[in-house]
Structure prediction request, 658 residues.
Amino acid sequence: MMSDIAALAGVSESTVSRALAGSSLISEKTRQRVVKIAQRHGYAVNPAARSLRRGLSHTIAVMIPLRHAHNQHFSDAFFADMLANLADAVNARGYDLLLHRVSEGEANWVEQPIQSRRADGAIVIGQSLEHKALDQAAVRGVPFVVWGARLPEQHYVSIGTDNFLGGKLATEHLIQRGRKRIAFLGDRRAPEVGERHRGYLKALADSDIRADRKLQLEIPFGADEALRSLSDLVRSGVSLDGVVAASDTIAMSAIRALTESGLKVPADVGVVGFDDVAMASYTLPPLTTIRQEIAPGAVLLVDKLLAILAGEPAQSQQMKPKLVVRAST
Amino acid sequence: MMSDIAALAGVSESTVSRALAGSSLISEKTRQRVVKIAQRHGYAVNPAARSLRRGLSHTIAVMIPLRHAHNQHFSDAFFADMLANLADAVNARGYDLLLHRVSEGEANWVEQPIQSRRADGAIVIGQSLEHKALDQAAVRGVPFVVWGARLPEQHYVSIGTDNFLGGKLATEHLIQRGRKRIAFLGDRRAPEVGERHRGYLKALADSDIRADRKLQLEIPFGADEALRSLSDLVRSGVSLDGVVAASDTIAMSAIRALTESGLKVPADVGVVGFDDVAMASYTLPPLTTIRQEIAPGAVLLVDKLLAILAGEPAQSQQMKPKLVVRAST
DNA sequence: CCCGCCTTTGCAATCGATTGCGCAGCACCT
DNA sequence: AGGTGCTGCGCAATCGATTGCAAAGGCGGG
Prediction:
């Protein structure tokens, strides 16, 4: 308790509080003495008491909206990587990280942890199909930032990769390798994937390649569906020599589907993934993919959110994707 | 604020508090009225105030000790899966989940979030090399549970797979497939892996197969090292027809190393993984592996911890592993 | 030597909910 | 009618820290 430390230091509780908080009202000499005593006795301020008095929880909620593919989505290596990096970034700023699952169909899930005062602000990983809900929450002034696509006229701050460019790079790479029948695998309803898809179409158009509807598969993030859909496609006899996948997970699954259908990767079909998760370089064949800068992204997310919490203005930001060429193309 | 609700309901704050907490001191009629009013006004008790008064945070810390392979480890799909399931289980019990990174070399990291009153108890995923630190903390009475191996005379509660049996099953499976030169890949210093290794040795001994030191590779969890070590091994000309890997991640990496060295999986070498992460069934070839029951494990972890927090006795528990045969053997 | 100013510290109210204890009201019994 | 036992609710202290305001102490100037 603070009063114990105060007694030991021979000062009042106010002084201890201010010394520990680094207030300029306390002389350097006193502060050092107090701090030393607190350390020696293993004292740490009670966060509940502090939160109550200050009205701030000093905690950031991290949420992953998954209306459709529940755990599938979460266990995608990309989310795990992002979460690990967020944990580091949040802790590095002295904040705590509250991990919150978003239950299906829960109304105003974005603000729930905030208005219940459990967290000061939130970081949402991925827009999923929740853009509208997010936008409305932003209009209501809920402090949060999103990892995902930047959409026209959105009211919230988002950090993410330039997905359009990423999709374009992936597709152009295949085209340069001489591919003309290039499939796109991903759930375009998710804004990030939608952008990647637009990039894909643009690259095709730039090279005067006709975009074939049959080659554009609507696949929720899960690898299951990718596997089945692609197998079906190949079996249907449609010609195909390239695949742009919306995630590395889908890409790996696609490689398996192709191989089991008797097609060789990369000889017959080139496959490009998206994310460059750790696993991407260990698969067989190692995956050509579009790298997203997760670590800097995590830091940006945290810093933007803290800026918003401090009342400063914050802008959305897009990071440049990078093509990483490996053996799958 | 509670006083607002009290005023609206025409009762005292005490009554509101008790009604919302479901105290038996309040008549059913009054409780319902109060609850309804609270709901209509979107009122939720201030967690900071409650924590302060009750001395409990109603929060569980989840920690992943990673002295050696920092993020590598975390991004292993197994941890992500476990974390996702823990988030569900913890939230289902009405608790909050605080995700805490364990900084390198930090002293008494287990109790830190607890004695700072940020969490009531902790769940540690994986013993890593921290068994001693964990055991000491348990002796000091820190409330926590661990996912990992059960060691002789340990003082903490652990939930986990029967790793010895798992290692034995994996190895026996390869032996049944006619393999005799079976390698083991994993960091045996981690208790879970050590147990798996003992199971491996037991299976070999039971079949009168000599265990060859050269085939037992000390590999930290990362896939990098697995790839290199195994490539080196193959290049050195040692004969080899089976691999037992300490994780699916290592197994995948091993498959790539073998394939690139000109060996075919499963024709020349059979590979068995451990965990059965989602990705394991999508790789090429799909991975034969030892399945760990993550979801029930997560629920057990949470319930045991809550039991400990409630002052009830709790026992360690081992779950039966299951061999899942796919195409890699 | 006295006064006023600045620096440093302490007093006490406050954040929002919980809970031990006491009391009012009512039913029931003798 | 008075006594007894419950049930249901309110009073007020309390959890541990923060902070506006006041005051004490030190210092220099007149």
